[in-house]
Amino acid sequence: MFKKTALVLIAALAISLILPCTQDVFAKKSKNKTASGTLTETVSLSGEETVTQSGEGTETDLEDTSAPSDEPGLNYTKKVLYVGKTFDLELNGVEGKIKWSSSDKNIATVSKGHVTGISAGYVYIYADCEGIRYECLVKVKSAGLTTISKRIRKGNSFKLKVKGTKAVSFSSSSTKIAKVDADGTVTARKKGTAVISCLCENGETYTCEVEVYLNILDIEDPTFSDLAPTVNMSFEELVGDNGIYDELTAMPEAGTYKIIVDLYHKVVMAYTKDENGKYTRPVRYMLCGVGASSTPTPTGTFKMENYRLRYEHFNKTNCYGQYWSILTGRIYFHSILYTSFNAKDYTDTSYDNLGKAVSHGCIRLTVPDARWIYYNVAPGTTVVVRKGSSDDKETAAIREKLVLAERPKTRPNLVKGEIPDTDNWTIDEVPHETKFIQGSQNGGEAAL
Asked: Which of 302, 331, 420, 436 is nearest to 375 (CA)?
């Protein structure tokens, strides 16, 4: 009995000696009383300190947060800071000696409230006074270019922007492929790849790899942005009028594309043939508005008809639309709605209702998407309009990513012919393989 008890005591003593060491290696925790009386816990894993805060959400979307000026506390409770930059913390409404400290000096240091960003990461800055701890959560970000790689069509431009420092100069590894101006504007000139370098005030050089292509079909591994260029377009480009009214005379062959309209997800998807002759290669994804329950868009398999209108009035309503392409009967693909022949008179609701079932049966699109169908989808092209289903995870994933620019609160002055063009194709690139002959509105005026 004595031996058994002794063995138990020896085992317990061994465990008690081992556990603290194990805890020191894997996790150190300290709880501190804050100004609000709540407890915050700082946890260090494997000797490297990370930060968590009770009652808070994730820290990935951290934004500068100032504290109320009429309450005791730090002037900031959250702050975003770039490496090498500084800001000052002040403890207001409190008297006494202040002890400043950082939860990780490798990320940010503090001296008398003066905080300096050292490396990217999250860190707490503490101010201890009269037994109360005040804290500010700081996100330190690396300086650099906002874009580190870009795929762009020949002839298009974009502007490089620098974060956390200032640009001194820009240069291109191949000005024949992509040239860059002093302000960071990059212009694609020839198919190929070029590296744009930016020398900055902090002494660092940051780079962006630019791939220039001629046609979306040239890209072997298109990204979602390649297939849905509207997600990166400005509101002005999505609703404006480019001022081009040339007569439509020729188009690609009818079998070039196959169009699928999914009514459940409100998505239009264009495909072209793969090496086996099957329509599996995606070409374009488009957010659309479809028919309301009382005026539904018809389902089935259709052939595009031969009637197109560039910018026209709906006779029975005081509305206009751009790029009408007849599908069947009174059902058209067309743009959002306007109250005049001037694109600045777009209707707020028709833009806001993209992705909803509110039309009279027509399939409403952004202007760039309606334009793509107008010029590229020839009469005779197969269009499948399906009900769709919530079980279709693949289309649901496409729909989730089709997020367009928000409609501005202040209505922009959209000048015809002065609208940005960042799309991945141009009208003069469209193959003229079959002659376009204008037909008639067999089903009468568009359903809207």
From this structure: 436
pLDDT confidence of residue 448: 64
Beta bridge mates, 69: none
- DSSP of 75-137: SEEEEEEETT-EEE--EES--S--EEEES-TTTEEEETTEEEE-SSEEEEEEEEETTEEEEEE
For residue 396, which phi and psi values (nearest 5 degrees)?
-60, -40
Sheet holding 121-129, edge to edge: 65-66, 76-82, 132-141, 121-129, 99-102
Distances from the Cα of 353 to the Cα of 266, 332, 340, angstroms: 11, 17, 19
Residue the block writes with tokens 């993209």 = 354
Q: Do the Cβ atoms of 210 and 150 come closer than 8 Å?
A: yes
Looking up tokens 């490297």 gives 48
Distance separating alpha carbons of residues 352 and 284, to the nearest angstrom: 21
Give the tokens for residue 190: 């020839």
User: Tokens 């499948």 label which residue?
Assistant: 384
Question: Cα separation of 136 and 438, whole Å?
Answer: 67
Whose tokens are 């009408």? That residue is 324
Q: In 10 A of CB 83, how many CB atoms?
A: 21
Contacts for 244 with CB less than 8 Å, ≥ 6 apart: 417, 427
Percent of the chain with pLDDT over 70: 84
Please tell me the number of Cα atoms within 13 Å of 101 on its side-chain side.
Answer: 6
How much is the average pLDDT of 54-75? 64
In the block, tokens 């991945």 appear at 424
Element (H, E) at 332: strand 331-335
Contact 186, 222 (CB under 8 A): no
Tens digit of each residue's pLDDT (9 = 90 or more) over 228-280: 999 999 999 999 999 999 999 999 999 999 999 999 999 999 999 999 999 99
3-state SS, residue 429:
helix
- What the block records as the tokens of 315 is 């006779």
Burial of residue 321, with CB atoms counted within 10 A of its CB: 0-12 exposed, 13-18 middle, 19 or more buried: buried
Instruction: For the full predicted model, state whether its pTM sits above 0.70.
Output: no
Q: What whole-number distance in Å separates Cα of residue 66 and Cα of residue 89?
A: 11
Identify the three-state secondary structure at position 395: helix
